[in-house]
């Protein structure tokens, strides 16, 4: 069926026809409009227009004046240890964005050859690699994208295209390509795409991905519309028909690429090379080195033997090793790091009106247990969640306003919760008894009659107060408002000044009072 045969605007007819096709395929899609795009551009976050935020970010890049010490000091607020990594990152980021600033100030400066400060981070999980880069990007004010290298494959095979990294950066920048071109791309688990020559067939997740990443890390133009993005392609057609042209390409020259991985098998390669270089007579035996020290001795040939293309690893000239965190380091993460997971748990309890006081021995116990998890700082949340899970569930309903987290709580969370709830119930009972005693004292002062409430009577009054959601004292005043006159009759006949209030009396005061009066006259009710 020809679209021209239909009446009306051809663009609208095309939209309708395409939407019908997507609807039959159970795909939801909405065509944009100039008015909708204009509203989106004017949308704000906290009252600040999106365009204004982008302009502020671009201004910070154009006026970049941070020194490596400034970056390092900022990172110290959030990440514990990793001093060498902070130093390397601080210098690399300052050098990169100083170069960007000079290129913006003087476009002719960009024509000169420039080697980018792309970085490879080596280190176990949970030592702060991602957090370092996220904090650095926040300080500079540039978009930041993190992805796992394992999801990419060579173009033409199942998986994501590496150019999606750049498109994701544009999305993080809210479509502002001027800002996105200065962003930071962080690719984790890069060691997982090392090629494996022993494998049969073509290595689509190794060498091919390296070759494609190699293009991105230097200076290349990336099409913002993926060939597999049908919706994006149709959106582009519609915008063209509506007379709107948007930027379709973005250059990666000023993007900073940082990759990281655990590189577990790299240690064996480095040790083997070091030991082979010491073979021979008269060669002194070197002192035993730690795993981190051995990893710092890694050379380009070690990366090539590991499975990386020489051209690929050559585009990552800056290499730094992150150290494993000890129990003492993890303790400092809890106490000193801004945004510590411990402060997050404190805030969670504050949301219920509960104060959590953390004893020093508890912090130490959590750090030791987290070190045993072998997942770095991530182990802290694992231990704290196991320790505090039942407390979060029980305490908001237990009328407990504060508690102290101790080393015993970390060692045996279930026993700690039980003891805390037991103390809470005892405290509630004491509070209830105090309120009843206060009412009895006021009643005695105004009537000269002493009331003695049984434990079951206090429990019955407490249940009534909880059901009515009113103070226990108010329940007493409402239940015993006629008690004074009835007890006057009883006291006149019996000279009794002390009366016991039972649970049965609380349940039906009028009936029990009538019974007492009848008994005082010597007859049964």
Features of the shown structure:
Helicase, Ruva Protein, domain 3; two-stranded antiparallel sheet; 5-stranded parallel beta sheet; single chain; disordered N terminus; Rossmann fold; 25 helices; 3 domains; 9% strand
- Helical amount: 40-55%
Computed over alpha carbons, the radius of gyration is 36 Å
CATH architecture of the largest domain: 3-Layer(aba) Sandwich
Q: Strand-residue fraction?
A: 5-15%
Secondary-structure-derived class: alpha/beta
Low-confidence stretches: 1-7, 27-49, 154-158, 198-202, 281-288
Strand order of the largest sheet: 2-3-6-1-7
The largest sheet, given as strand count, sense and whether it forms a barrel, is: 5 strands, parallel
Count of alpha/pi helices? 25
Tally of structural domains: 3
Mean pLDDT: 80
User: What oligomerization state is this entry in?
Assistant: single chain
**Gap between N and C termini:** 97 Å
Describe the global form.
elongated
- Per CATH, the superfamily of the largest domain is P-loop containing nucleotide triphosphate hydrolases
CATH topology of the largest domain: Rossmann fold
CATH class of the largest domain: Alpha Beta
What does this structure look like?
Helix 4 crosses helix 5 and helix 17 (360-373) crosses helix 18. The longest helix has 35 residues, at 413-447. 55% of the residues lie in helices and 9% in strands. The chain folds into 3 domains: 64-262 and 303-319, 3-Layer(aba) Sandwich (Rossmann fold), CATH 3.40.50.300; 327-411, Helicase, Ruva Protein, domain 3 (Orthogonal Bundle), CATH 1.10.8; 429-520, no CATH class. It is elongated and about 115 Å long. Strands 2-3-6-1-7 form a 5-stranded parallel beta sheet, with helices on both faces. The chain has a two-stranded antiparallel sheet with strand order 4-5. It is of the alpha/beta class and 525 residues long.
């Amino acid at each position: 069926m020809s679209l021209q045969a239909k009446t009306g605007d051809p663009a609208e007819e095309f939209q309708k026809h395409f939407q019908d096709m997507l609807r039959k395929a159970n795909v939801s899609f909405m065509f944009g409009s100039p008015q909708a795009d204009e509203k989106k551009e004017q949308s704000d976050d906290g009252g600040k227009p999106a365009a204004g935020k982008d302009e502020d970010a671009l201004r910070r890049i154009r006026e970049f004046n941070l020194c490596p010490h400034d970056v390092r000091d900022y990172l110290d607020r959030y990440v514990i240890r990793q001093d060498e990594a902070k130093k390397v990152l601080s210098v690399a980021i300052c050098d990169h964005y100083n170069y960007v600033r000079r290129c913006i100030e003087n476009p002719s400066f960009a024509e000169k050859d420039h080697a980018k400060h792309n970085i490879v981070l080596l280190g176990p999980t949970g030592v702060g690699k991602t957090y370092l880069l996220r904090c650095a990007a926040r300080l500079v004010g540039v978009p930041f994208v993190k992805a796992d290298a394992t999801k990419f494959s060579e173009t033409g095979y199942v998986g994501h295209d590496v150019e999606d990294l750049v498109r994701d950066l544009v999305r993080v920048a809210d479509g502002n390509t001027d800002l996105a071109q200065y962003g930071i791309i962080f690719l984790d688990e890069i060691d997982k795409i090392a090629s494996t020559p022993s494998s049969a067939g073509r290595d689509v997740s190794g060498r091919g991905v390296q070759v494609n990443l190699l293009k991105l890390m230097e200076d290349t133009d990336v099409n913002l519309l993926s060939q597999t993005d049908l919706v994006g392609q149709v959106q582009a057609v519609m915008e063209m028909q509506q007379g709107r042209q948007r930027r379709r390409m973005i250059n990666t020259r000023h993007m900073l690429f940082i990759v990281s991985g655990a590189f577990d098998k790299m240690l064996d390669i480095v040790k083997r090379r070091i030991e082979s270089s010491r073979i021979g007579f008269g060669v002194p035996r070197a002192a035993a080195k730690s795993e981190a020290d051995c990893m710092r001795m890694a050379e380009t040939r070690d990366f090539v033997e590991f499975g990386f293309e020489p051209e690929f690893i050559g585009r990552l000239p800056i290499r730094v090793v992150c150290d494993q965190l000890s129990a003492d380091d993890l303790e400092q993460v809890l106490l000193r790091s801004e945004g510590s997971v411990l402060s997050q748990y404190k805030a969670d309890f504050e949301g219920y009106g509960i104060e959590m006081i953390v004893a020093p021995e508890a912090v130490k116990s959590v750090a030791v247990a987290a070190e045993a998890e072998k997942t770095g700082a991530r182990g802290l949340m694992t231990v704290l969640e196991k320790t505090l899970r039942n407390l979060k569930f029980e305490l908001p309903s237990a009328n407990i306003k504060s508690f102290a987290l101790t080393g015993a709580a970390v060692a045996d969370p279930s026993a700690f919760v039980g003891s805390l709830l037991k103390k809470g119930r005892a405290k509630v009972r004491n509070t209830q008894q105090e309120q009843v005693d206060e009412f009895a004292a006021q009643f005695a002062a105004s009537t000269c009659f002493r009331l003695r409430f049984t434990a079951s009577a206090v429990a019955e009054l407490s249940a009534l107060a909880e059901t009515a959601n009113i103070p226990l004292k108010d329940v007493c005043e409402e239940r015993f408002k006629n008690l004074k006159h009835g007890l006057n009759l009883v006291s006149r006949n019996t000279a009794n000044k002390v009366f016991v209030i039972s649970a049965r009396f609380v349940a039906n005061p009028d009936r029990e009072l009538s019974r007492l009066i009848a008994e005082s006259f010597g007859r049964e009710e």
